[in-house]
């Protein structure tokens, strides 16, 4: 009989009996089968206490999971939910630590069990959480379980740290390093694996960046190899630290952070053979840090802008960005504009304008003897690499290449130290030959010969030049002062002139503009073009002037046209008003040959109009069948208070055809003036009558009628 069995009542038996089964690791599940069987056997205990077999539920979803936290234990979450809903009469566990190793998680479960009247049953007895003594006892067990886990973990971690300080703790090794039979770390005896790892460091030496290595490897994989100190022969323990963090949704999870080198718990350089030395590892680490653009670094990048990353604006002092416009790079002060601190001198300039001034200064700073030494070393390296590819073409294998170079010196660092004249030589091994054949940088040197990429030129520039400062002149924006600060501490100023834009290259000669402004007001476009051509001038594109080009020049520089009318000439509008016809009728007479006319400046009509021509026009208008002959035609022009049809329609908010219809039906007082135009005497009374007619109409739109009604109301008020 179990202790406290009398606490089980009928109310508990009417609900479910839940058996919670958990083992901390999968190894315990596999090797400690007896403990797992004992936990499953608690279902028999529930049956002996009175629960029906159908009311006994086993939750074993957390087998192989630690009880340190409830974050990833779905079985424990399911148990808490069932208890909270009041569906569970008793929770069975082999011991309290099986439910949770965290006092906070177990305390929450026990509090819910107290509120819902749920029993907790383990191998020691039955606990009723409404009883203060049972609650105290379970709380003490929960704290002891959490403390026990802490003591076990502390002892294990301290033992690991002690072994790590001696360099004897066996840790997982990266690819390319293995443990031998004596538990020592050695380079992988598989030559292909070792050659592949060597290729990573060789490619990084040649390209200078992890992305350059990523041509043959994934970037994350390449960066992981380059940052791993194990490849430099160092034993490291404690590079990373794990800590628990709380998400905004309240979930607790583990977060792993990488520590800086001065916070590593154990660091033993020279612990085992490595692919590179510890000094090379530190140099690679510094080079990777210099490539981090998100930390403010400006490493050499692809692109033809030579001063990329080291150019600054002399007006605001901020770094200038590289922007490509029509395939041409430009140095642009974009940071100041984004931060709204740009000065009037901040702007942009084409990169080649500055680069063409920097390159001669760089070449002048290098002594001829050093250049000759560097070129000789580069030629020797290029010849050696070419021989490697030629031998591979002949033999077809890296072993054949190594055999062909037996007894011959070969540069170990093909590109490093060339400009310093410090080549290191040694025997060409199979691994080294395979690395050269696989390396895209060496393949590019073999295929393209002496060609150097943009990155190489930028690296060479940065070995001597610290930064470049661009300051436009305040008096002449075409002039730019380029400040060069050398790494030796000296500085130099170079004056350059901006390249002329396409618009500036096609500007008309100022002498031609001056002549056009002087003689243009008295000549038409064709005569002006002839005068400019006779004076030997050409357009901005180098073509002779014609009437169109002269007209464009006149329009752009606001050169006035010569007078349109000569003595006795009239315009079509003036003749239309004199004869009482429309302007369209005058144009018809010109096109039909009834009126003689000439084209003046801007192709405007100028019509000779002596008295005889005027009389002929009046007779033609009087005898025309197209002219109005109403008896009420009034030759008087528009009087005050009169509106045209279009003006009246706009005032009333209707279409002009509605006003025409009202005038034809006699609803509006209208008269026909010169050229047959209708004029309406638009008095306030006429306007009010029109608005009333609009408001009562059944044909006009509702919106128009509503606007008319509103206007009537305002008039009434």
Element layout with pairings:
Elements: H1 10-13, E1 16-20, H2 26-31, H3 33-40, H4 42-48, E2 56-59, H5 74-84, E3 88-92, H6 96-99, H7 103-116, E4 119-122, E5 125-128, H8 132-165, E6 177-179, E7 185-187, H9 191-207, H10 210-213, H11 219-227, E8 235-237, E9 240-246, E10 252-258, E11 266-268, H12 278-290, E12 311-313, E13 321-325, E14 328-332, H13 334-338, E15 348-350, H14 351-365, H15 368-395, H16 398-404, E16 409-411, E17 425-427, H17 430-438, H18 440-448, H19 454-464, E18 465-472, E19 479-486, E20 491-497, H20 502-505, H21 510-519, H22 525-534, H23 547-556, E21 569-570, H24 572-579, H25 583-592, E22 598-599, E23 605-608, H26 611-622, E24 642-643, H27 645-652, H28 656-665, E25 670-672, E26 678-681, H29 684-695, H30 702-716
Parallel strand pairs: 1-2, 1-3, 3-4, 12-18
Antiparallel strand pairs: 4-5, 6-7, 8-11, 9-10, 13-14, 14-15, 16-17, 18-19, 19-20, 21-23, 22-23, 24-26, 25-26
Helix pairs in contact: 7-8, 9-17, 15-16, 15-18, 16-17, 22-23, 24-25, 27-28, 29-30
Rounded Rg: 48 Å
- Major sheet summary line: 5 strands, mixed
Assign the structural class, choosing from mainly alpha, mainly beta, alpha/beta, alpha+beta, or little secondary structure. Answer: alpha+beta
So, the CATH homologous superfamily of the largest domain? Resolvase, N-terminal catalytic domain
Q: Between the first and last Cα atoms, what is the distance in angstroms?
A: 102 Å
Q: What is the number of helices?
A: 30
- Low-confidence segments: 412-427, 443-451
The level of helicity is 40-55%
Strand arrangement across the biggest beta sheet: 2-1-3-4-5
**DSSP strand content:** 15-25%
- What is the top-level CATH class of the largest domain? Alpha Beta
Global shape: flat
CATH topology of the largest domain: Rossmann fold
The total number of structural domains is 7
User: What CATH architecture of the largest domain would you give?
Assistant: 3-Layer(aba) Sandwich
**Average residue pLDDT:** 81
